[in-house]
Amino acid sequence: MIEFQKWLMMQTRSASRAIHIFANSEFGSTALKYSPAASSSSSSSSSSSSSSTARAIVQLRSLAGIAGLTLAVGYSWQQRPALQLETRQDDDDDDVEEDEAPPLRAPPTSLTMFRDGSRVLVWGLRNAIPVDESLGESIPEDNLRVPREAKWFTAHAESTGCRWRQLSFGPSFGVARTNTGKLYVWGSTNAKSDRVRTFLPPQPLEFEDVGPDCRFTDVQCSETAIWALTQDGEVVVWERVPMMIAKVDKNGGCGKIVGGRRLTGLDRSVRQMSVGVSHAAFLTDIGDVYCLGNNRFGQCGADPQKHEAVRTCRLVRFPRHVKPVVRVRCGKSHTVIVGAEGQVLTWGDDSKIQLGLGDTRSAGGDERPFEGSRGFLNYLETGEPMAPNAVTRHGPGGGPMSRARRTSSTKYGEFEGHFQAKPSYTMPVPLEFERQAHGTPYPPPDQVYCGDDFTVLMVRDSPDWFSPEEESNRLFCCGENGKGQCGRSMQSTQQVFSAVKLPRNCLTHSVACGADHAMAVLERVGSRRRELWTWGSNEKGQVGSGSLTATVCPAVRVKLAKDVRPEAVFCGFSTSSVICTPQAVDPNSPSSSNGGSFRRSNSRSRESDSE
């Protein structure tokens, strides 16, 4: 009976999330457009139309409980076995492919849409900073520790009428994409003769087989290459980008860069891709995942003892009920996906516990479940004392001496490598203090992000019945924390899933992870003002707070000029950027007398509602 209750709760949450996704998708928007409520309000003002749409969405979400109960009754009549919430181990039966699923529709627009703008701010490692000396920009002599506006992007947007939608950075180069699907690449090279670094201003990047008519929907950088996704679902790769930039710079640095090749080995069109430092993952239109590249830690889903590198696109096998996959992300040596029912599976390097499998660094357990509020709730439920000594946990009559219970789903041997070559289920997101008393679990993550050795989940923490204007979410991070990448505290060098210290009751619009740092654009509930928060390594100034410290943790707020509004953030290696839109400034405001310069924030912003 207990297992059935767990399964019923899982079905209810899945149905609630499905209706939430439908209400925010383009199909749900079309249904609302032709609904009686929308048609009756079409003759009224725009404010009444938006309110009726919001009420319709709330009504759809209110059906989630009924839908979940209907699913539960339907499956119970079919004598479906209870869903096991514990970690499921891969076996030979899990590798059996199911029937081919129909093509997936796109995820909710609010979760995948790239927000665009006409102004771009950059900071961090100087090697990847875009510089155009013809517009009066000076070559940075050192790394930029505060945001600086890239004048070329503003000038190009004004002259062509385009808007910037995406940026990506490599170690010494970068690429940008406009809302029309065109690409522009820039970079810097170090001459061997005088050892002076020269900067190539942004130049058009075109695919040789198609020409200037080719349009792209995504672009990302690896260590030495640029990967782009066309509107037709094809992947194009430009290899040896630093050498290509050095050749163009030697010839005068003007004109366009033409090249690239199609990626082979994919039977279906690609809907989403993610590129790490030395490997990549591709999500097809039917929910399959293919991996390619370095496989030293099994990050491509193959046994590293047999396949040290995957040279052709390899299909990753998943347990049942995971396909079709919804999202995929790559770190430096690990890969993360979100399944059809909201499951999070990871594989690859786990030496920094970045896979979210719990504290797998030792064979022992963790005392934290027996301390504080968690220990008190455990005492009320089981009667087990709070935080006793590990060897006397069960008392004098409790049998032989034992260690604390394990808090990880995976156990490594004493001389076994800490990696997973097969996808493994992550541990559930731990409940925060206000949720522990009620035991209300978090819904499936809306998004997942990866740095080199850490993983970030974006989880909604507002109730299902809240209107879209009242929604809020939280960021949970696990993995390496030696440089503050997890954004909570510096108490441990590695940590399991824990909440990033950010202001509460905020909606996260954009998140980006670099090698050892991360950024987020937040909007407080009830306010239209957006804020830029950053944390992690600051050795190259990539946090952007102006601080000279090498580590920034917890997160700090980067204060931008009053005449810009942050829309989306992008990180790469040790470089950061934010796409902004101009906004009007009250000339009578005292804070507008700074002439639009960017102000430094050397300490954490003192917000009353921050943790």
Shape: globular
Largest sheet: 5 strands, mixed
Q: Give the spatial strand order of the biggest sheet.
A: 3-4-5-6-10
Count every helix, treating DSSP H or I runs of 4 or more residues as helices. Answer: 10
Terminal CA distance reads 39 Å
Which regions are unreliable across 5 or more consecutive residues at pLDDT < 50? 19-113, 389-403, 591-611
Rg over CA atoms, rounded to whole Å, is 25 Å
Question: Mean of the pLDDT scores?
Answer: 78
Beta-strand fraction estimate: 25-35%
Q: Helix fraction? A: 10-25%
What is the oligomer described by this structure?
A: single chain
- The total count of strands amounts to 29
Structural class: alpha+beta
Q: Could you characterize the architecture of this molecule?
A:
The C terminus is likely disordered. The strands form 7 sheets. This protein has a 5-stranded mixed sheet with strand order 3-4-5-6-10. The chain has a 4-stranded antiparallel sheet with strand order 2-1-29-28, with helices on one face. It has a 4-stranded antiparallel sheet with strand order 7-8-9-11, with no helix packed on it. It starts with a helix and ends in a 29-residue tail after the last strand. Helices cover 17% and strands 30% of the residues. α1 packs across α2 and α1 packs across α5. β12 and β13 form a beta hairpin. With 611 residues, the chain is an alpha+beta fold. The protein contains 10 helices and 29 strands. It is globular and about 75 Å long.
Summarize the structure.
The protein has 611 residues and is α+β, with helices and mostly antiparallel strands.
